[in-house]
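Researcher: Please predict.
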Amino acid sequence: MSVMLLAKATFQKNKSQMIGFMLLIIISSALMNLGLTTFLNYPQLFDQYAKDMQCADVITTIQNKDETYIKTYQQELLHDPDTKQMEQRNVLFFAGKCQYRNSETLRQFAVLNKDDKQEIGKISIMEESKKSVEHGIYLPYLFHTGGQYNLLDDFTLTIIQDGKEVAFTYQIKGFYEEMMLATINSSTTGLLLDDEEYQTVSKRLSHTIDATMFLMKVNQHDQNSEYATRHLPTLTSTNPSIRSDMNYYDTIKQSRTLTSSIGATLIIAFSMIMMVILVIVIRFKIQNTIVEDMKNIGAYKAIGYTGIQILLSLMLPYLIIGGIGGILGIGLSNLLLPFLSYMFAIQTGLTWHQGLDALCVSMTLLFLMLIISLITMVTSMKAKKLTPIVALRSGFYTHNFKRNHVPLDKHKATLTVLLAMKVLIQNLKANVMVSIVISAIAFASVFAGVLFYNISYQFDNFLFASSGDIADIIVESKTHEDHLRLKTDLEKISGVDHSVDFYTDNAFQCGHEVVICYTSENFLHLRSQQVLYQGRFPKYANEVAIGGLLASKLHKEPGEMITLKKGDKEQEYLITGLIQGANYMGHDVAITEEGYRLFVKDYEARTLNIYTKDKQEIEDTIQYIKQHYSSNIIGIQNNRKVVEASMGSYRDIVSALVCVIAGITLFIIILIMYLVQKTSILQRKQEFGILKAIGYTSKQLIHQIALTSLMVFVIGAMTGAILGYYLINPLLSMLLSYIGMMKVQFEIPWMMLITIILLICLTGSALAMWIARRIKKISPYLLVNEN
């Protein structure tokens, strides 16, 4: 006897619902394949670019103010047995500012001579104007994809040297790519000038910004961090007035692939939520199919079909749909990859041409088919075990003596309400399954809603979670006395909330890791206390709080000791707490000013973080400081504007992904509610026939269906929303901990939860009433005898 005939009959009987399942599978498989492809291949894209361009493993840049020191450092590098190859270049190295994404950004620049030959860190021209320009400059390709610059646009570069600003205006001749320097996600951004323009800038600044850049390749590429750490003490022991910097491969790769990591993680997480919903819905549908076709199953067994054949007939439609839907979903994900590549290029500048990946396709299809096979087999076992006589009796083994919990003659409620309550109790198992489905939908809705609210709407929440504390204004004074006077006067300005001493030093080591060190008079004065997620901030000179990822790598916990090193000095500290943030990939530490003086004895605070009462007060406060303290400060920047400009690309990308997820969630809600409601109503068609036969009108039955659905939906939506409220942040913390966001504390407004519950309940009830309209056109006789 043909199993395919039974499977075909099952499919034809539930054609519209099977199409709905296929759409759900297409979306789930597309998201999963998209997430896996990004997660596994995008970091390899960076590696492939680096290999093709002979990317350096470590880059060190030092201003040419002490030739003896530079020669000593050069010899140290040459005599290191791990130095495989080294290249030395002349560059211009300085602090400066420029416009990026319509905002001013202050950072370190290294200007390279385009006419120099490169063996290490080769430069690739991505776009170049054929027109000749008088003063041309080549910018990182990221300035085109993410910075909104085009060929022949004007570009102003301001060099800050000894408290003075010198501006140069260029036309953009082209855009280039180089893995370590063509980015704003590292401590130094590279620019290209031809030899004539290069020499003009050098002479204009009296050669004070001339510098030497060392590019090293090491014997073991994966040891670049240890190599950098080994040579950092020599670099940091030089005169503080000599500007120097070091970057190594691992940190640049992590920073340039951060967005893809976050995006892939969110996509995979959402696809898994969709898979859970898919599993619940398939289980719900198969259980209802068995109940609905109970007598047919009994008849099939009576004429010779075996339990295995019945089992396969129930499984095959879902397996076939799963295979077809999975393949279509993978095809859809391949169509979406160029869009995703464009979004990532906004932040990374890397052009990604990715086709189908055999491993990702295999993993997606294997996981999908395995899940569908397991859930259909486990759920269909009931049909296999049924005997023909029990099946023909609609599954009853004996008479039903269940208690009547809602006797119609003893309650004062309306008949429609009483019947709705009876249905709710009598079909408790089915209603519990519906509630679980609705709970999963509500959870997915809260997931999408929380991301949208905290990234697209309340961007500060995402900034604080990913970047730690963000000052509105940062001011560097010329002397400590100027710093103290400014700090005192700021207390009198109405727009200023408070200020705190805060200094960042990127020349520390912890074990074999290069770490960033924060020092402050009082970390409790930081605006965002989310930075600390375990323990407390340091209070005394021998205490430290360290990044969560660094603690994991070093296998350290609060209460243990670690050794910090700067130059040739070492000091032991007691870990009092753990801090978080995606900056520097969690490789950061925080110590008190007294603790910092154990390394720099004459340290006196000159850098001030200023927090205004409102964003609108930032520019006014900056103008006030410039007007009254211009001769007392080295520099001042609108830090919030700088951070928002650099993080704006992250916001655009993640917001776009979240909007897509939210749109998919809305579609899934409607689709699943349609499937669930139609299945539930079809299961009760004989009951509706009997009720119509004894006098109930179609209108009364439709209201009863809507009321019963509303009760189930309220329970399911509230359960899912409550689970979302308590589990979304821990789930995101688990997913994003590998980039330093150890304890996500996104805001989850109660009004959003209430709105999601109301929308689900109203949408579900409306769909139930719409689907139930078919009752009007069917006679009681047909409803009872439809089988």
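Model: The radius of gyration is 33 Å.
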